[in-house]
Write a structure and sequence with these properties.
Layout (H helix, E strand, L loop, with lengths): L1 H27 L1 H5 L4 H20 L5 E6 L5 E5 L16 H7 L22 H7 L1 E10 L2 E8 L2 E2 L4 E5 L4 E8 L11 H14 L4 E6 L4 E5 L5 H8 L11 E7 L2 E9 L6 E6 L2 E2 L5 H20 L12 H5 L2 E9 L15 H21 L1 H47 L1
Parallel strand pairs: 1-8, 12-14
Antiparallel strand pairs: 1-2, 2-7, 3-4, 3-7, 4-5, 4-6, 8-9, 10-11, 11-14, 12-13
Helix pairs in contact: 3-5, 3-6, 8-10
Bound molecules: 3-[3-(1H-pyrrolo[2,3-b]pyridin-5-yl)phenyl]propanoic acid (0RA).
Length: 417
């Protein structure tokens, strides 16, 4: 037995060195992990922790997530999931929770759910937040007890302690962002609340709340309708073309997509696209697939139903998206992004899959809802007419300019003579 112990110990020492290097790297170059040390980065810490709870919810084990801003400068995120495992990890000889919170890339190791697709740093987030926190406390309700462990700057300072009996399950992470790293360590309710609301829209049914114990402000978000309610929220003060948003979802191998849209009588398109809960501001293959399928399906419907427009030209993408509010949410196993900023999806296979799903669903939706179909197409034809008229007017003005210029030129020539 002592032999084994010495082996374990020497292993532990070695890995301990790499651990220090790992967390040291985070503290040396926080920008590489959380994009900076400004206010955005500070709030990013919160979203990293929340993402872990969202993952637990996506796996089907949690339906409440509460963020609490504490007056002592810390922030707590509490969920009612299974609780981070507390058992001793066989290879590493320390509690799993300690491994998850103090080692870079320990995220996936314990992950037995294949649906872990939420945003953030793909499960390595919690240890990054720990490294950048002056202090962190993990409190876990699991296996009949409340367990507690504390860390400072990502380093364990107390052994995992069994505090008391507890019948519930769940995880609470409390952290104090490191003042020596961030410009400003004050949390802002106005920055946290909108993103938490967005997460609640994107993950139907989960109750997500935020409480500010400095000011007693409280908001909670829970949307059984998911992105349909997101669309209703976007069109809140608009007059809509059809009563209920169009919604559909589909699955194709390792892609799941959800789409909701509703037209209003305005002339602007508003599209929010997401991949694994991350807002892809610059879109990408999921969005290209959606746009292509929308345009093609509406034009096909017109042809099939002999609906004509005066121009005989197909409706363009811009024509069919005028006045449209759209949310497209994709869940992708191995998302590839154009850059570290994760704002544009590049997986080529996604485009075709989304196109197929959208064409199929939308095609039958239009067949089954001819009244809505007619309204959408009438709006598109209107947009096309306005677009072509504007184009003609522009061309006319240009021709007129050319004409005026040449006569002016002629007159100047006269003068010179
Ligand atoms: C790994 C395995 C299991 C749960 C979790 C991670 C977990 C992590 C977080 C982070 C925040 N809240 C969380 N809740 C759960 C479950 C292993 C099992 O019970 O089989």
């Amino acid at each position: 037995m002592p032999e084994i112990e010495s082996v374990v110990n020497s292993d532990y020492d070695e890995s301990n060195i790499t651990v220090l290097q790992g967390l040291e790297a985070v503290r040396l170059r926080p920008g590489m992990y959380i994009g900076g040390v400004d206010s955005a980065a500070l709030h990013h810490l919160v979203f990293e922790i929340v993402d872990n709870s969202v993952d637990e919810a996506l796996a089907g084990f949690c339906n409440e997530i509460h963020a609490i801003i504490n007056p002592d400068g810390s922030l707590s995120v509490e969920d009612n999931g299974r609780g981070i495992p507390v058992g001793i990890h066989e290879e590493e000889g320390i509690p799993a929770v300690e491994l998850i919170l103090t080692r870079l890339h320990a995220g996936g190791k314990f992950d037995n759910s294949n649906y872990k697709v939420s945003g953030g740093l793909n499960g390595v987030g919690a240890s990054v937040v720990n490294a950048l926190s002056g202090k962190m406390i993990a409190e876990i309700h699991r296996e009949g007890f409340l367990w507690k462990q504390e860390y400072e700057q990502g380093i364990t300072v107390t052994p995992l302690e069994k505090v008391e009996e507890s019948k519930k399950t769940g995880t609470q992470i409390t952290f104090w962002p490191d003042e020596t790293i961030f410009d400003n360590v004050e949390f802002n309710f106005e920055i946290l609340a909108p993103r938490l609301r967005e997460l609640a829209f994107l993950n139907r049914g989960i109750l997500i709340s935020i409480r500010d114990n400095r000011t007693d402000r409280y908001q909670e978000f829970q949307y059984e309708g998911g992105i349909v309610e997101f669309i209703k929220h976007m069109n809140e003060n608009k007059s809509v073309l059809h009563e209920s948003p169009v919604y559909f979802s589909g699955k194709s191998e390792d892609v799941e997509i959800e789409v909701a849209f509703q037209y209003n009588d305005s002339y602007t398109e508003r599209i929010y696209s997401f991949v694994n809960n991350i807002n892809t501001v610059e879109g990408g293959t999921h969005l290209t697939g959606f746009k292509g399928a929308l345009t093609r399906t509406l034009n096909n419907y017109m042809t099939a139903n002999k609906i004509t427009n005066d121009s005989k030209e197909n409706l363009s993408g811009e024509d069919v998206r005028e006045g449209m509010a759209v949310v497209i949410s994709a869940r992708v196993m191995n998302p590839q992004f154009e850059s570290q900023k994760k704002i544009k999806l590049t997986n080529v296979e996604i485009k075709g899959k989304v196109e197929t799903l959208v064409s199929e669903y939308l095609g039958s939706f239009l067949e089954e809802n001819p009244v809505v179909a007619k309204k959408i197409i009438a709006k598109g034809i209107d947009a096309q007419r306005a677009r072509l008229a504007a184009k003609k007017a522009r061309e006319l003005t240009r021709r007129k300019n050319v004409l005026e210029f040449s006569t002016l030129h002629g007159k100047l020539a006269d003068c010179q003579e």
